[in-house]
């Protein structure tokens, strides 16, 4: 194992997590409603942000099968990762050009940045199997996640300080500091990606395939996995449940800040609260792992999802910055834990020897499902002229997920996963890739 290459791989999570914390979760949503969409009323601005998130995820979902096929079949993972990294880096930097009323430009740049982040992660994840032997992948993968939380949190803390105290950084005002924050994401992402690009090299493979052939291979593989799900009914139940509650979780991540800004919570309080979420999530993710050992994975997942229901209901009544801080801490309690436990359950339900294929299917299908949460939030908010109703609509996603989860028999699902496929079922050879089903907030 090349230690320099592995360190470079880990540092990439440190690098691109800045996009999630500053651009998706904290600073950009506030800038979007206060500056880019200043010419719109607050509820419409919040809805447009939700629609933008849905469009971005739709494009990511459409491209995912193609990118997955390229990652698995071609020897150009680093080259494609570099392309998508630069797309995200440049998109982040171009936000310095967004002025009052430029909400369309801001939305386009956000879509391009999200494509850069998510598209790059397809190839970043796939590099894990090239760089790390199987017995060390769990540890190195977890180390990447941990560095992502820490790196994204550090830059967010610096950006918060700049926006709150611009004079400390020789900046004239908070708006200028916000523009500098966008530029800092671009520089941070680029600089901390360099160790990976320096130490990890492509392993050329002459496939002779065109882009259209890769696309066909990617969609064919997804369709093949979809058809074979009929042999694993408990797995199907869990996947559908996951679509609902995971969409609710992701919508809270993407919509919480702009919703808080709409109801009048200050910029400093919003960013500080999300910074708290970032660091609270680290120990509580580990704590939920212990809770799952004591109560069982399904019971601990119920606990986390019920807490999310409470968060959404309280979010509907939220009035003050103190309320937002309390809810941010509650999200930190359950965000990482719910996703980690869900991934563990899924790993026990997928057919033995085909985890990469089925995790790939979950990754793609959940991206399609993640379109609906922000869209529902935006549509309900626009139709009712109240984003409070938009946030409250997320209760349905969590309750539907919990209801479907109650119908999943984990023991039966494990037996189905261990069962050999029927003679008339042709199983494709497994293609290893590392799933990325969660993002640091």
Could you name the key traits of this structure?
Growth Hormone, Chain: A, disordered C terminus, 441 residues, mainly alpha, 2 domains, 17 helices, 79% helix
Characterization of this structure:
The protein has 441 residues and is mainly α. The protein has two domains: 1-198, MFS general substrate transporter like domains (Growth Hormone, Chain: A); 217-419, MFS general substrate transporter like domains (Growth Hormone, Chain: A, Up-down Bundle). It has helices spanning 3-36, 42-73, 77-93, 103-131, 134-164, 174-191, 194-199, 211-228, 233-262, 267-295, 297-317, 321-349, 355-369, 372-384, 387-392, 394-405, 410-418. Helix 3 (77-93) runs antiparallel to helix 4 (103-131), helix 8 packs across helix 13 and helix 11 (297-317) runs antiparallel to helix 16. The longest helix is centred in the N-terminal third of the chain and has 34 residues, at 3-36. The radius of gyration is 21 Å and the shape is globular. The two termini are 30 Å apart. Residues 423-441 have low confidence and may be disordered.
In short:
With 441 residues, the protein is mostly helical.
């Amino acid at each position: 194992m090349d230690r320099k290459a592995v360190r470079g791989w880990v540092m990439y999570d440190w690098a691109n997590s800045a996009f999630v914390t500053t651009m998706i979760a904290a600073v950009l949503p506030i800038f979007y409603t206060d500056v880019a969409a200043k010419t719109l009323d607050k509820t419409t601005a919040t809805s447009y942000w939700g629609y933008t998130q849905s469009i971005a995820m739709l494009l990511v979902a459409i491209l995912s099968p193609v990118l997955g096929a390229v990652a698995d079949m071609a020897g150009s993972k680093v080259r494609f990762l570099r392309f998508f990294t630069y797309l995200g880096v440049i998109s982040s930097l171009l936000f310095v050009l967004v002025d009052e009323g430029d909400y369309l430009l801001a939305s386009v740049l956000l879509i391009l940045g999200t494509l850069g982040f998510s598209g790059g992660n397809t190839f970043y994840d796939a590099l894990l199997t090239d760089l790390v032997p199987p017995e060390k992948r769990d540890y190195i993968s977890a180390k990447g996640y941990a560095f992502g939380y820490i790196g994204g949190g550090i830059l967010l803390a610096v950006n918060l300080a700049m926006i709150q105290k611009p004079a400390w950084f020789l900046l004239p005002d908070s708006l200028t500091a916000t523009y500098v924050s966008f530029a800092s994401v671009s520089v941070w992402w680029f600089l901390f990606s360099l160790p990976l690009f320096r130490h990890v090299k492509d392993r050329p493979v002459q496939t002779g395939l065109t882009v259209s052939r890769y696309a066909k291979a990617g969609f064919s593989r997804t369709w093949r996995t979809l058809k074979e799900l009929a042999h694993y009914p408990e797995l199907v139940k869990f996947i559908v449940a996951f679509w609902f509650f995971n969409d609710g979780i992701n919508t809270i991540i993407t919509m919480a800040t702009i919703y808080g800004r709409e109801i009048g919570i200050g910029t400093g309080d919003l960013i500080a609260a999300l910074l708290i979420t970032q660091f609270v999530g680290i120990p509580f993710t580990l704590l939920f792992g212990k809770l799952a050992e004591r109560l069982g994975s399904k019971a601990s997942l119920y606990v986390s999802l019920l807490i999310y229901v409470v968060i959404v209901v309280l979010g509907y009544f939220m009035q003050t910055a103190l309320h937002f801080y309390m809810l941010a801490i509650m999200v930190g309690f359950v965000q990482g834990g719910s996703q980690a436990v869900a991934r563990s359950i899924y790993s026990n339900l997928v057919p033995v020897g085909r985890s990469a294929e089925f995790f790939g299917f979950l990754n793609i299908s959940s991206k399609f499902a993640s379109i609906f949460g922000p869209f529902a939030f935006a549509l309900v908010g626009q139709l009712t002229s109240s984003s409070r109703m938009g946030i409250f609509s997320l209760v349905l996603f969590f309750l539907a997920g919990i209801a479907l989860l109650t119908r999943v028999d984990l023991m039966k699902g494990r037996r189905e996963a261990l069962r050999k496929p029927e003679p008339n079922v042709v199983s494709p050879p497994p293609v290893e890739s590392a799933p990325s089903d969660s993002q640091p907030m």
